[in-house]
Structure formats: C-alpha cells, structure tokens
Amino acid sequence: MALQESLAKFKKQQERCQTTLASIAAKAGSSKPTVPQKFTPSVPTKPTPAVKFSNDTERLQHINSIRKAPVGAQIKRVIDLLLETRQAFTPEQINDACYVDTKVNKAVFDSLRNNPKVSYDGKRFSYKSKHDLKDRSQLLVLVRKFPEGIAVIDLKDAYLSVMEDLQALKAAGQVWLLSNFDSQEDIAYPNDPRVPIKVDDDLKQYFREIKLPPDMLDIEKDLQRNGMKPATNTVLRMASAENHVCGSKPKAKKKKQEISRRTKLTNAHLPELFQSLKDADSSK
Fold it and tell me: Which one, of 155, 152, 151, 150, lies nearest residue 131 by Cα?
C-alpha cells in the first residue's frame, strides 16, 4: 500500500512539472523583443473646450412643457400642424414636428382619432375639412349648390388658397360675397342666372310698398340701422366733390386773335373778314 501511494504521488508531481513547462514555453513563444522607443519632444496642444451640458436645456424644457400641457392644448397643436401642412403624419412624425407624443399619451391619441377635424387611416393622421375641395372649379360647383348662400367660414379650411379663389370668383362675377353686420360673417352666393331663386309673393308686395327716403343719406342710415352695409358713401362723395370744386382754377380767357395782313392773304375767299383792314387803310 505504501508503495502504491508513493507511485501515485510521483505521477502527480510529473504532471505538475509538465504543465509548468508547457506554460513557460507558451509565454516564451508569445513574447516579442522590446524595441527601444525614440524620444520625441512634447508639442503643447490647445486645451479642448469644456462640454456645456446646458446647451440643450431650453429645448428640453420646451418639449417638457408641451407634453405636460392639457390634452386640449396638445390636440390644438397637432391640428394646427395638419392644417398648415395638409400632409399625413405618423405618430412618430408628429412627435418630431411638434413634440406631442401621441404614442405615450393615450388620451391625446384617442381624442385625435375621434376629432371631427382629423382623419385617421390606422397609420397616419391628416386634416379633414368640412367640404372636400381641391381647386377653384370644385369651389364654384359647391357654391352653386347653395342658392340661399353658404357661410365663408365653412369654406376657409377647404384648401390653402381657397380665400384667394373666392376673391377671384367674385372679381369674375361668378359669386357674390355679402357680409352680415350681426354675425360679422361673409356669405357666398352663386351669381348664376340658371339657378332658380324663388321669392314669395308676400315678400314682393312688401318690397314694392316700401317708400324710400328722398335723400341718399337717410337711405344709408336706414341700411346701417338694419345691419346692412351701404354700397355708397354719400358723405365721402360730397366731400370729394367740394374739394374738387375748391381746387379747380378758372381758365384764363384766350386773347381774341386780330386779323392781320397774313390772314388776309390766306383767307381771300372770306372778304367780309377784312372790312376792318380796309377801313384802317382808308383812314390813313
């Protein structure tokens, strides 16, 4: 037993020696001869500016104030973006454009999806106007469908240049734009002779029985009293007429042209013109 134990110890010692030799050989093979480094004088470098972590603080504060704002304020911000651009935006694009995170704020997302001014196709949000119009021709067709008039406020958000097109249609005589003093809103009426406008007989009779004042000033006052804007301005017209009369200068009288010898030569066929010349010659 003692001999076997001593043999086992000897084997273990040999294994340890072989492991140690193998590790030494591996280290010797991986080691490279060291190359002496050359001395290079140090060149003074410019100090790098310190990074200011507060450069973006204002923007982050602005984003934070937007996201902490009431739901209504965030919705208005998104609708204004959709109205001004008339483009479709994903929730990520809305967040990049106006800092409203619709993916995180579920209340804002649900309110936008159910808003009558917003259209949502499952991926993108876009602006939805009351009347789906694209250009001036479609605008004219729509106005002609309302002989009793259509409120301009319902047309303002149809497309970006709708107000310019309304003024162009008015200048071309295709529509009328009349204002109401009570509501301060303009109404667009079609100026199309093919559109039938029915007026009750009672209203016609009442209109014929109205006696107009003889003075235009009184007519304009009555119109303003009933909430209508007069098409004329008599006071301004009279003032401009007075200024024109006062500013005009009397024309200088032309000097009466006397008959000369030259006239006698060139107008020999009119002898009665030269009687004064004959009298002058005889007196001499």
Answer: 155
